[in-house]
Amino acid sequence: LYSNLTACQALGNMCVMNMNSLSSSSTDACGLFQYVYVNTARLGIVHSVTFWRHNLPWLYYGDQPGLASQVLEANHFPTVFSFKGTDKHVKLQFIAASFDAAGNFLKWQNLEGGILQLCPDTQTKLDAAYAFGTTYQQSCKLSVSKLLLDFADPIFYDLFLEYNGDNEQQYLWAVPVLNLNLQYSEMFVNQGSSMNNWLLTRRFFLVDTLSGKENDLGKLPRVIRIASKITISIRLVSHTQRGIIYPPLLTIAYTDVLVQNPETQSVMVSFSVSYEMNQSEAQIQTDIALGVLGGLAVLWSLLKTAGWKRRTESSVIDLQTVLKFLMFYAGDLANVFFVITVGTGIYWLVFFKAQQFVSVLLPLPSQEEDFVTYIACAFSLKALQFLQLLVSQLTIDIFFIDWERPKGKVLKAVEGEGVIKSAAAPVSIWRTYFIANEWNKIQTVRKINSLFQVLAVLFFLEVVGFSNLALMDSSSSLIRSSESYIAPWSRILRFGVSAALWLAIAFLQIIFFSVFYERFVEDKISQFVDLCCMSNISVFLLSHSCFGYYIHGRSVHGHADTNMEEMNMNLKREAENLCSQRGLLPNTDGQTFQISISRKMRLHYDRIHETLTRKRGPARLLDSSANTFEQSTRAYNTMNKFLSSFIDHVHKEMDYIVKDKLLLERILGMEFMEPIEKSIFYNDEGHSFSDVLYYGNETTLLVFDILFFSIVDLASQSFVLAAILTYLQQEIFRFIRNTLGQKNLASKTLVDERFLI
Predict the structure, then answer these.
(1) Total structural domains in the chain?
(2) Higher pLDDT residue, 138 or 413?
(3) Minimal CA–CA distance to 182: which of 13, 52, 28, 22?
(4) Who has the most CB within 10 Å: 48, 265, 460, 754?
């Protein structure tokens, strides 16, 4: 009434120190302020702001339900922001009017001087808090004695955001404050804490060392109140293409500290600037993609299960069928999660870092939980598929068919009879041992170099600086100064950057090895097929009970167990086309086949194989270890003779035909014809037998490595640790695959494991 503006400011400051209490008590500073506010309506308002009375400070926005959402969302901030351009477009120009406790106006202060950051730091890092798009976090412990010294007199702030109008005139936009310590009236407590029921205020302070003092103002206060957590929230308007934001919100939480020993006492304080946008539309799109791709994965898994049933000659849907379907679905669903997470990570990486006028903002850490869950699901399901792949490769049936025939006869003494008889010259086993060793070597050959892959990814992330793209700031620079502020990591961007590098380097490796290295240096898979032909040995593989692969290694020269001179002559004749072609069929070069064998053929194979693996009857029925070896050798010769005669069409009741696969059969990875009476050999233009090796499953191995690397990185926030552990797991699983694969090879082919090196 007396227009004493300083006294009214002092009353407002007392109310702010009392946490803007809505108490109706007339002795309370806020109650008195409300009484004055209500009874001075005739004085008018300031700057057309309904809540700002003449001669009074602006403390409240009003207590009407829904007012907070109207203040924060009804109007857009009248300027645009970008990641590139002049200061007025890339920086938040916060400015504060400061008052002392007595109500005297002190000055206007720009927040870039670190006014609100209680933690000491360099000027560059303090100013980085207001670079648009940079998520800022600062926290530290402060000594109570230092706070008492630096804030002997509390200072009160009214915060504004400065902008230029259409006529380039400067304007101020009042920034609302959400005080988490606000003493709600019973009405607000009952209504809950949603945005509609927030009670927004204006004025705030950082440290109050005044109201905690008792009678003697010269003594230390019993209690000090500190702004222990300050957050400035920036929300982007949905569907904007020009960097339009809603009015900022300052959220503040105070902590009361009982002063006992200021020299030893400390308090944790933090200051942050967060950026957010409505992510509901992105979540809906992700859910739709999951639903559609997940449904397609079910259909694809059903097709795989149908193909598996056909290859195992099983017509009954039993528990094994259900489990096999679940295993197929686990692998396909892992691929769905992987595609969605990689796509999401690269999307945010490209569209957030490359934008000039801001249209998207990164999800908050709390909004990344679903993304991390998707990665965890992808890794778990892919690990299940990988283990199932290992088990299937370690249990395949394999046999080396030796086509070599004896050259002439030799004299041989018959034990126990004392006579000498002529017998066929023995065929050397060394060629079989040689092929077995070569097969053993290529079991874990991959299409990429694993060590180079890990080192290259780590080099680009840590040395070149691609890891800096995962920081939650607007900069797309790979090099950061040690003096510049380092924003917190975004888990989505970390995954996007690392997965993109893994895929890019792996793709380049595959191109290099397939186009250059395997063509001009060495192709171990093709060389193995050539070695089989030169060694006069074929490979018969069964990955399923009635499906497998055949490598035709029968020498076109009749013999392979020969001297160097004859071997060179054979190679020369073949180079000059003076002999027949290597293919299974006359005048063809086809040496590799996918085979679908009849049930009768499989039963005959199993009968011989039982003796080969020495599983017929308990050990007590066998005469001795020598007889056991003789029986195994006899079984080996029987199997060799049976398979070679099968390839030569000797068994008319177990014959086979050779045909090409239909295009749809190749796409679906299944066979439409059932081998009821005759087995079927499908021409293989590539080397599909590598499906039982690491080489043919590079996609599964690569995705598993990427997910393993990402899981370790998300847990440890360390690319170096993730790279080390990824390489270790690669070597561990390679050792397991080699060791157990070697044992399976020895047991299925009768090649003594001592000769496998």
Answers:
(1) 2
(2) 138
(3) 22
(4) 460
**Contacts of residue 613, Cβ cutoff 8 Å, sequence gap at least 6:** 747, 748
- Strands of 326-408 (E only): list them: 397-402
Q: At what angle do helices 450-458 and 698-716 cross, to 10 degrees?
A: 40
Q: How many residues does the chain have?
A: 757
Q: Is residue 341 part of a domain?
A: no
Enumerate residues 6+ apart whose C-beta is below 8 A from 748.
396, 397, 398, 399, 612, 613
Signed CA dihedral, 715, 721, 722, 728: sign only: negative
Taking only the tens place, the pLDDT of each residue in 31-83 is 888 888 888 888 788 877 888 888 889 898 877 777 888 888 888 888 888 88
Please tell me whether residue 200 adopts helix, strand or coil conformation.
coil
Q: What's the pLDDT tens digit per position in 665-676?
A: 998 888 999 888
Of the residues 276, 298, 325, the one at which a domain ends:
276
Q: What percent of the chain lies above the pLDDT cut of 70?
A: 92
- Between β-strands 537-542 and 397-402, what pairing exists: parallel, antiparallel or unpaired? antiparallel
Helix, strand or coil, per DSSP, at residue 652:
helix
Number of H helices and number of E strands within the chain? 21, 21
Same domain, 546 and 410: yes
Using left for φ > 0, alpha for ψ between -120 and 50, and beta otherwise, residue 114 falls in left
Distance CA 538, CA 551 (A): 5
**Amino acid sitting at position 262:** P
Is the distance from CB of 745 to CB of 398 less than 8 angstroms?
Answer: yes
- Residue 100, pLDDT > 50, answer yes
pLDDT at 629 over 60: yes
Q: Are residues 272 and 404 in the same domain?
A: no
In this predicted structure, the answer to whether residue 619 has a pLDDT above a threshold of 50 is: no
Tokens 């106006």 label which residue?
A: 105
For residue 383, pLDDT beyond 60: yes
